[in-house]
């Protein structure tokens, strides 16, 4: 029989079908094994780990939400409130963990129907952000940008956002935005997750309060709360000394931003921005309340519980006497001359503790004559003070052994140094030689006596017509002598913005200015420096640091009573080394200024009338103001054995030696006995 190849093929195919069930069985077996494994795994996940996954789905997150507490108060020396707090109804917003910009925009639009806010600080960028927070607006703008930029697919999210903002601003789309709604949105956007910010922190009307209160459920995160604002029961003049506090609008000061953020402050938190408010910020700010907020995984607030009620800030008690401060300020304003006068400044302090009783000042506008309270001019307005520095020059001369208490006589005479103008004393314009001792030189305020002392300190004895030939370190030696009394150095008072004054050039042609330095007509000093200087004379040679805060008070959490937790103590910054006889000469000379009977006495009748007697030194410095020849009148005074010294300066006066310094000083000293201390 002939072989049929088709039958062979058929037979092979039948063999293949015969083998097919075996393959299926293998595949089915493998599938069965996989299904069993899947069932086992599913059972394991459901039975064994089901509770864990259910807990993960229902997981809660705890976050601490901080609240605001009132700042500490500021009292005067008698316990009167100078800076207090006023509680104000406020509308606040606490941002949830998953609140989107779109949600905040919707809330802002709804809230804007019932709440009007100040839009002064609304920026165009915030208006654009508000416009783009609407998803429909954002998508429409993004399509335009992607179409315009063919490489749009490669643009980053930040680039798309910046281009969108630019498009909105360029095409004036922000003109269709409600400023009020956008401002509310801007304030809401400034809050980070679970932080609270003020939407409106003051001037919330009763109508706004009622309308919002009825609809709080419609405004996620919005609450009716309380804000605290500084108030000044004794007048805003004290605000200059106490300083200012930033508002929610201002937030943290730019120059301290990173430091404060590192200390745990938030961007929009109020903080002391100047003077005592800034210096003592860590005490005044208190500690914020803490509420533990529990949220579910979708951001819904599950519960909240107060963890810490917070503590109001510590309070400051000042050395300032409010009544005395007001009176000194009034005396300066009422007795300030006109003309080119720039102002007047006065500091009264305790020479043994450094506590400042009053620090008043007036700034006068030359063009309008308007007077403005300027107490900080005592620390930041440096002035050429004139002859008030002569006791310090005398002390330096004693230390350098160029004169002694028993041998201090020199000639008051015309000083003629080659290359410099002739110098004479006001009472001896002719320059005829007159013998005077140190006490008389102080009483008459002899310029030429102190020029000769200065030359001796600098290594040269005066000879008429000779060239100036001082030691190379003469200027520094004299300045060191003045500096031991604190002249030319910052006092370290606990208020910011203090200046050390200006020290003139000492090289080349300026070397001749040394002669004027010796009687106070070159370098500049502040009125507070004069007060520390005369304190050093009054207390026997101790350089005392001035301060405004006498103690820190802390409120009890269970009571309205406050307890003292810190008291200021005297801080000695240096000591002037003089023996008793040398001090006696200085004290006697200053006594004669205020109480002497010499024909050329410089104290004036107003000082002579004071009881108890004061010791003083007056000063006059020639200056130029508004293109005119003017004068600074100054004075320092103290009462021996009493805790009071006074320093004063009036720059820009047109009249020479008119006695205004003595007249104002006498009024201030009498006011001290009236308001601060009974006469001994």
Automatic annotation (TrEMBL):
It holds the Pfam family Transpeptidase. It is a single-pass membrane protein. The chain crosses the membrane at residues 26-47. Its main location: membrane. Residues 345-670 form the Penicillin-binding protein transpeptidase domain. InterPro entries: Beta-lactam/transpept, Beta-lactam/transpept-like, PBP_dimer, PBP_dimer_sf, PCN-bd_Tpept. GO terms for molecular function: penicillin binding; peptidoglycan L,D-transpeptidase activity. Residues 69-302 form the Penicillin-binding protein dimerisation domain. It comes from the Bacteria. One of its GO terms (cellular component) is plasma membrane. It is found in: Cell membrane. Keywords: Cell membrane, Cell shape, Cell wall biogenesis/degradation, Membrane, Peptidoglycan synthesis, Transmembrane, Transmembrane helix. GO terms for biological process: cell wall organization; peptidoglycan biosynthetic process; regulation of cell shape. Belongs to the transpeptidase family. This is Penicillin-binding protein 2.
